[in-house]
Specification:
Layout: E1 2-10, H1 14-22, H2 24-30, E2 34-36, E3 44-48, E4 54-63, E5 67-74, E6 83-91, E7 94-104, H3 109-131
Antiparallel strand pairs: 1-7, 2-3, 3-4, 4-5, 5-6, 6-7
Helix pairs in contact: 1-2, 1-3
């Protein structure tokens, strides 16, 4: 099994990052503006990408300002069964985010594309948290 892992530091408190990752407002600025999101454990969040597919993530764990864990239940076949986690650690008003997408069956071309796009996701998250505007899917030119 393969994992994707990234780290990003954001110059805001963990509460700001947590809110961005658990609300429709935040995720629409960071990832895609076509979504249905609920911040309750067991709920299925739906993310649409301009007619290029639907991704459904079950919310498996929420620890306020510390951890978010999703399980992919529907998407590209390579994503189904992967687990996505965001671990947050605040120190001196800055938050370190450890991102993981775990349990890939193999390192494939799609894995490599997703690895790149998760880095863009984290950059978008940083932009949104620090400057109020992210780079969601529908605004990307790359």
């Amino acid at each position: 099994m393969a994992n994707i892992e990234h780290m990003q530091t954001v110059n805001v408190p963990a509460s700001t990052v947590y809110e961005a990752l658990t609300t429709a407002k935040g995720l629409s600025e960071v990832w895609t503006n076509e979504l249905v999101v609920n911040d309750q454990i067991g709920c299925i969040n739906e993310f649409f990408f301009g007619g290029k597919g639907l991704t459904k993530m079950r919310v498996d764990e929420l620890v306020t300002d510390k951890r978010i864990l999703w399980q992919c239940v529907d998407s590209d076949p390579e994503w189904i069964g992967t687990t996505i986690s965001f671990d947050l650690e605040e120190k001196n008003g800055k938050t370190s985010i450890i991102f993981r997408q775990m349990n890939w069956k193999e390192v494939s071309t799609f894995y490599r594309i997703c690895n790149y796009n998760w880095a863009i996701f984290l950059y978008s998250l940083k932009q949104y948290c620090e400057e109020g505007e992210g780079i969601p899917y529908h605004k990307r030119k790359f």
